[in-house]
Amino acid sequence: MMKSDEQRPSWLRDAEPSAGVEGFVFYGGRAGIKKSGADDFGLIFAPEGARCAAVYTQNLVVAAPVTLSRAHLKAASGRVSAVLVNSGNANACTGEGGMRDALESCQLVAQALSERAGRELPLEELQVCSTGVIGAPLPMEPLREHIPIAAQGLTTRGLPDLARAIMTTDTRPKARALSLTLSSGVELRVAGVSKGAGMIHPNMATMLAYLCTDASLSHEQLNALWSRVCDKSFNAITIDGDTSTNDTALLLASGQGEPLEGEDLARLERGLTELARELALDILRDGEGVEHVLHLKVSGARSQEEARRVAEAIALSPLVKTALNGCDPNWGRIIAAAGRSGVALDPSLLSLSIGGSLIYQEGRWQGPESEAEAHEVMRRAEYEAELSLGLGSEELWIYGTDLSADYVRINADYRS
Amino acid sequence: MMKSDEQRPSWLRDAEPSAGVEGFVFYGGRAGIKKSGADDFGLIFAPEGARCAAVYTQNLVVAAPVTLSRAHLKAASGRVSAVLVNSGNANACTGEGGMRDALESCQLVAQALSERAGRELPLEELQVCSTGVIGAPLPMEPLREHIPIAAQGLTTRGLPDLARAIMTTDTRPKARALSLTLSSGVELRVAGVSKGAGMIHPNMATMLAYLCTDASLSHEQLNALWSRVCDKSFNAITIDGDTSTNDTALLLASGQGEPLEGEDLARLERGLTELARELALDILRDGEGVEHVLHLKVSGARSQEEARRVAEAIALSPLVKTALNGCDPNWGRIIAAAGRSGVALDPSLLSLSIGGSLIYQEGRWQGPESEAEAHEVMRRAEYEAELSLGLGSEELWIYGTDLSADYVRINADYRS
Question: What is the ipTM of this complex?
Answer without folding.
Answer: 0.75
